[in-house]
């Protein structure tokens, strides 16, 4: 038979081979797929499902479909006549969080850009030391670092003691448990996320372009804004996203430094799963936060594509 | 006319006085420039020529303002600019790597200097268009610079540096990255651009042929010092230093002793005993042992009945179309090359044959 129909035998062999190849590939992919399924898709699925259920009396959920969680985000149900009244409480927490996260991003950019530039302008063999110093705080738990920050900025903290000793102020500045404290804490926590990507793009910068800028009558400031910043833009954008997103969902910093009085989204969500015992609403809020982040990323992706096609 | 005579007639665009530059300190100190004196004239195509590491780029960067001198001063049309930052010097640079801004179009690159000078938009547009036409890149105005060929990028770099109409244009080996054919074209283009714009060009190269074909004057540098400044003919025909003679073109160098001098002429006894008279030029050695030099094309084969200046054994005959080089080993062990226009009689001139050579007396020079 193989003599009479060699092509088909060959084809069968090839097909078998392909099939076994495909099977091998599936097995090789399995661990990765399992991990993706287990750590990202499954929890997300659970969150989505929970957000459409009814809260149980002692936490958890009861399996009864409801869109109340999403409604609750914007409206309050009047207890007497059951009408919906606009409720700005949660929206304002979101806006506050966005404001704080944006502020922290801008603050981190203002501090991080010169830092990255400083490191990139050092001789190659010194740069690693500076980068090590920048990442050093990461070796400690964020909770510990935030407590340390608390000790520094509290009324009897180092800053106030020094300012008072120096005679600049007579009574301590109240920083702790204010928005300023949260703001400082957020910048402190996420600054390396700003420095590292900006450094990465500045390090690649061809210094002769800077010289060309000076040569063509640009002073320091003009060289900065017309040459260095545009060329470091990918790093700046990456840094801003890397700071903005975790700052938006921050939990520990506002909890400790904001004194838990002034909520950010993260605290509000945590509270729904804790004291408020409203898991569906917590899930809904988490999903709304995620939607917000996705919007930020999409806008960035679109802007990047438009920039590329403009140039191309 | 010699270089110094020209210098007296025209005004200096760039004057460099006692300029020194040392990088690093202590044991690691490198003297890149050592007491350089230089006058570059208005509307001149001036070339800095020298081997790698001799300080050409350093001198250019000092004129541009990217480096500050350790000692000495630089002035531009009589005005001291030694301490001015680059953006306050009316001098532009064409970088060897071109250094075009990758985030701007060709037109934006060219207009950059004028924009930084705060010129009105209409003027920037007009000048940019004129520059694009000058370098024949009108069709590329909206392109990004990484979509251009090497030669096109080179022209954008030129246009960008010329657009603000600098007093002096500095070019650091601008043709080094181009292939031979494009390079030859760009040499001509550069030369005519210089004539058209009337801007003083200071051009750096380590290619002696490029220097000879393009320059009004050449400064030959070695280890941070300028050895000789002069027109291409000065440098080629009347080299003052052994290094200059060796670096530019082919040359025969023979050792001898000065017998007597008479004005600018010296009578030199070569090692094989023959006497030649040689130009002293600016050479300081007026007695004792000296080196004399003569170009291979200024040495000819002795005809029948002529008294040869030198005799030697033919070691090698190299024919290359327009000329033939005969390598002659003298009795003293020294070697000279005779460049004979066209081919030679193969029956008469063969390796191993003993022949006579005549050096044209007025083209022998005593070297420093
Ligand atoms: N920034 C610097 N730091 C230390 N040494 C330097 C620096 N720049 C130049 N040098 C040294 O100064 C000397 C002259 O360098 P320069 O770049 O001027 O040479 P060049 O003539 O332009 O050579 P090339 O033809 O290779 O470009 C070299 O020995 C070089 O190593
Ligand atoms: Mg150089």
UniProtKB/TrEMBL annotation, chain A:
PROSITE patterns: ABC_TM1. The chain crosses the membrane at residues 26-53, 93-117, 129-153, 181-202, 223-252, 281-303. It is found in: Cell membrane. This is ABC transporter permease subunit. It holds the Pfam family BPD_transp_1. PANTHER family: INNER MEMBRANE ABC TRANSPORTER PERMEASE PROTEIN YDCU-RELATED (PTHR42929:SF1), INNER MEMBRANE ABC TRANSPORTER PERMEASE PROTEIN YDCU-RELATED-RELATED (PTHR42929). Signal peptide: none annotated. It comes from the Bacteria. Keywords: Cell membrane, Membrane, Transmembrane, Transmembrane helix, Transport. Residues 94-300 form the ABC transmembrane type-1 domain. Belongs to the binding-protein-dependent transport system permease family. CysTW subfamily. It is a multi-pass membrane protein.
Automatic annotation (TrEMBL), chain B:
Its EC number is 7.6.2.11. Keywords: ATP-binding, Cell membrane, Membrane, Nucleotide-binding, Translocase, Transport. Transmembrane segments: none annotated. Residues 14-248 form the ABC transporter domain. The keyword Nucleotide-binding applies. InterPro entries: AAA+_ATPase, ABC_SmlMolc_Importer, ABC_transporter-like_ATP-bd, ABC_transporter-like_CS, Mo/tungstate-bd_C_term_dom, NA-bd_OB-fold, P-loop_NTPase, PotA-like. Pfam families: ABC_tran, TOBE_2. The keyword Transferase does not apply. SMART domains: AAA. It is an enzyme of class 7 (translocase). One of its GO terms (molecular function) is ATP binding. It catalyses: ATP + H2O + polyamine-[polyamine-binding protein]Side 1 = ADP + phosphate + polyamineSide 2 + [polyamine-binding protein]Side 1. It comes from the Bacteria. The complex is composed of two ATP-binding proteins (PotA), two transmembrane proteins (PotB and PotC) and a solute-binding protein (PotD). Part of the ABC transporter complex PotABCD involved in spermidine/putrescine import. Responsible for energy coupling to the transport system. Belongs to the ABC transporter superfamily. Spermidine/putrescine importer (TC 3.A.1.11.1) family. This is Spermidine/putrescine import ATP-binding protein PotA. The gene is potA.
